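Please describe what follows:
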Amino acid sequence: MSVKVAIVYYSATGTLQAMAERLERTATDAGAEVRRRHVREIAPQAAIDSRPEWRAHVDAVAGEPVAEPDDLDWADVVLLGSPTRYGNVASQLQQLLDTTGPLWSEGRLADKVYAAFTASQTAHGGQEVTLLSLYTTVMHWGGIVVTPGYTDPVKFVDGNPYGVSHATAPRTTPRWATPSSTRSTTSHGARSTSRSASPRDLGAPGRRVPRSRVLAVGEKPWHPRRRVVRSRYTGRRWSET
């Protein structure tokens, strides 16, 4: 039986659309049954018309299926996507989430695997807190939040263990929004459905991440960039990553 993956997102000018399409291809290639759904555009027409790229994208996706709460109910894995809005979730996606009360009251959104993706103009321009805001809703649903952590090398480049993020500014080099990053998030979420969200390999070929274990007294967590430094003021030593 194939895993059911719902990719539910809002995209104003096409950035989140491209990320969602990449996630869809990855999930499909992995054998999952996929629903990719954008949410309804609720912004005033005057605001949309003020930006040609916004108007062009709205017209381009006019014929595509629109997300409904039923898509969340149907899925085993839900990937939520939103651009940052001053560090918050876009109102268009939030409106859909706010209509899930009936499903939540019946427990129909619980025990599913959830992950999230986002984009902003600058690196870390509200990306982390936007992802965390999405996960707050998931926690109220009783969902299983599966984040990439640092189980893929690309996460040591973007420094964002909370999900997939992309920066659109011309001067940035968003290596983290590569096929490797989106591919690993999709694969990780699908595998976690059958592994009870075990934090294993995120997609790097041949690379396995050890299962979590209780550290011995005095033992420090392993980190690939850990080094010991000494304070120039107090002489005290500590581990720095």
Summary: Strands lie at 4-9, 33-38, 77-85, 88-89, 113-120, 144-145, 164-167, 227-230, 237-240. The chain has one domain: 4-212. The first helix runs from residue 15 to 29.
